[in-house]
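Inputs:
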Amino acid sequence: MAGNELYVATALIVILVGFATVLVKRNLLKIVIGFSLVDSGANLLIVSLGYLPGRTAPIVDNADMLARHGSLLVDASKFVDPVPQALVLTAIVIGVGVTALMLAYVVRLYATGKTLDVREFGRMKW
Amino acid sequence: MKQVISVIALVTLGFVLWQLVPIAIPSGLGPVTQHYVADGLVDNGGSNLVTSIVVNYRGFDTLGEVTVLFLAVSGAAFVLRRRSGLEVYEPIPASEIVQTGARLLFAPIVVFGAYIFVHGHLTPGGGFQGGAVVASGVLLLLLADRDRRLPHGLLSWVESLSGFGFVLAGVAGLLAAGSFLANRGVLPLGQWNRLASAGIIPVIYVLIGLKVGSELSALLDLMVHAANEREEAHR
Amino acid sequence: MNIISWLNIVDLLVSAVVIIAAIGAAVHRNLLAAVVFAGVVSLAISFLFLRLAAPDVAMTEAAIGAGLSTVIFLIAVRRTEEMEGGDE
């Protein structure tokens, strides 16, 4: 609990700012920017919840990190939690894919309706 | 009225997250994570524990992620396909510095990206990072020379064969050791901290790096050339 | 002042940059500036990942979040309008 509060608080503020943008703004591009902010904030939140103070990155690069000399078992008390990092690696790539798809739709909607206001699209009929 | 509901929703979300966070902060490694870390070097032979989780212990999730990225890029390509009735206007050509720099820098950037995904099991990095760096190098080429057309046939073959190769590696694990994407038995684990180690993990990461690099390059090429088109009525 | 407290001050500064840039991305009317602010948020978050002992994730966020995502946004802004019209 010691070292995490600053990062968790930053991540929560970014998530809330992103959601506020999605809920309040009318411009389609602003809404997509809001979703991208929510993605970044959620990734920061997950990684900061896996951080254990005083430990190092999960890469075994010298023999001090092994449990015993001559064996390949790793001393697990020297590393931060690697599972949130693996999950966030996946999440970042999926986030950019979804953002690209959303932006393709925004470009197409603009070509059809000539406006980026989300209220106009609520009134469009077939 | 909508503003009031938005404010209430945001305050509730912030409150719920703030209350849930102290429960979620760990004080040590959980039992499954303990096994991933302690046996990560023995089972996989590679120094990067995050790579061993992404490719071996959670390899099926990585297969799903590659699929999702492919679907997103395909969807974007379908939405932005070339339609009749669009006029193409001449973009401003890039300056001399950008053109010369792009020609000089493209090869080192691609080599750097390839270095990142080939050494994914030894140093921080891996397929996704290396693929993104290669796509950035291709973007530099596209920005310098606006008329350049990427060989889409070659990109699409590289992408398809890499994805197919990833599934083949999984099936090879199934045949050799009894479970899909298994790391034992297909290639030798080798010596710790050497390039040719960690079983099939470097092979899978090279395939992922090629696939992500060619996919993102195709997406950037599509979007950059689509940016030169405008609808007729709007100028 | 030893290295540990110096790093804590850098953490505070970078977190402040993250929050200010996020609010700037939400508020600014010029969409080009808002997209650049979102790129700054991603870049500063990748620095925070480095401080959280996650070099893989920092590399991925810097390359994909701050690099490719910003470029795709800029292409979309070019294809549509640059100023946010109307009011909120």
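The helical segments of chain C are 3-27, 31-51, 55-79. Flag for discussion at group meeting.
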